[in-house]
Amino acid sequence: xxxxxxxxLRKGTSQQWSIxxxxxxxxxxxxxxxxxxxxxxxxxxxxxxxxxxxxxVAEIEDFNSKVAQLLPVTNIVGGANISVVxxxxxxxxxxxxxxxxxxxxxxxxxxSLLVAGSGINLNYxxxxxxxxxxxxxxxxxxxxxxxxxxxxxxSTNETLNVVGSGKTSVNYNDATNTITIGSPQTAIEExxxxxxxxxTGDSSILYIATDTGQIYKWDxxxxxxxxxxxxxxxFHGTQHKTDGTDPIPLAEYIVPQLTSNVNNLAHDNKDVLYxxxxxxxxxxxxxxxxxxxxxxxxxxxxPTNTIVIDNQSTNSDPANRFLSYTGSDYxxxxxxxxxxxxxxDTMRWRIL
Length: 352
Prior knowledge:
- The protein is about 10% helix and about 30% strand.
- With about 350 residues, it is mainly β.
- The protein folds into five domains: about 10-55; about 105-135, no CATH class; about 140-180, no CATH class; about 185-245; about 250-350.
- The strands form eight sheets. The chain has a six-stranded mixed beta sheet with strand order 18-19-21-25-26-23, with no helix packed on it.
- The radius of gyration is 55 Å and the shape is rod-shaped.
């Protein structure tokens, strides 16, 4: 507003204003001396409809005195990390430290975000502000899988196990807290009977026939028993019986009928071999050799046909051949039996 502008102030009692009820020009003030009310016109609204502000002189003076009593500011105190500085009639508020969550609040928040997975325990000690992660369950075993059936597990008794293929050995060094994966270890495969074993075995694997509970190994040619069944190590005793009082059963095998001369006969590592032929004088030139000394009984169950046990026949491999003390072939007549002893020294089946 220019300095030389003149503001006209219209005033009157409350009754006068109410009776006249004028329209004040836009920006023109009017003062009600009865109630101490100031109204400013807008050029269209009459006095009685205008809003106003009450400004009694006594109240203004009282407000000024009360405001004056607040200055200078001396009774405002800053909270944690807040500073308050007074300067005459002014004061300033500043930050004296870092604002944000306290350590306790951070600890509580982190604890609330952690969720224990399967087999894991989480324990938050609010007093010591420590979070402990441990393995749950009675076995106290932590298992680490690779997405398949193979699992590496670590127990509180400091034992590492590999479950699954059994192809890998694992060693845990407690002193250095290191895990070493070593060379393949022997695996075990189970079958209902030896007849279900693979046609060609694996020498690094143990095979169990669940019908007898006996363990077998593959020697490159056939399966042989990896250990004795009973008290006698020379024969097959009753499984798990070791007091020597049990009978000694013999494992029997019916050989498929000989329809031609047979070399290197497979015998399923049985003790008694029942032989038969479709014609007279079929020749048997050898049996697959085991890796240990043993005795087998050959029985001719043919009703009429003789089977010839050849002496040192070159049709069979050297270690599988028969050796006769007489140097002649042996004729196994129908209904007769013949014992042969395999000697690992001579690598021959000796005819007894």
